[in-house]
Amino acid sequence: MTELDSLVKTYQTAVFQKDLEAFASIFDEKVRVFDMWGRWDYDGLPAWREMAQGWFASLGSNRDVITFHDVQIEITGGMAVLTAIVRFTAVSEKGEELRYLENRLTWVAREKAGVWKIIHQHTSGPIDFETMKVMLKR
Predict the structure, then answer these.
(1) Under 8 Å CB-to-CB from 113, ≥6 apart: which residues?
(2) In whole angstroms, what is the distance from residue 64 CA to residue 9 CA?
């Protein structure tokens, strides 16, 4: 168990519950996010919160179940890097799996006064050479 386990668990729970406050709580005020959906980056927590608000609203009555695979963590002093393959599974109100996609995820986190916050997030997917489309499933 590492210091970053609570970030992972909070992320999973917050997304499933569409809890914007819990979601935002794991990110630093000056977070910089390189997201793969629709724009190059989000600078600062207000921009990232706005993205999450739109994401949660877009789900309607459905929810996203988040699972982390192939997690690797490196912690040095007050800095940490987490890399993983993350599966986002949309489920209906009845818990039926509707669809899923996978992203590569990197978090850079910093510890301040005993609290870890994500200062950078980067998500990506490889691009198929033939079609030039992002591959969203391994």
Answers:
(1) none
(2) 14
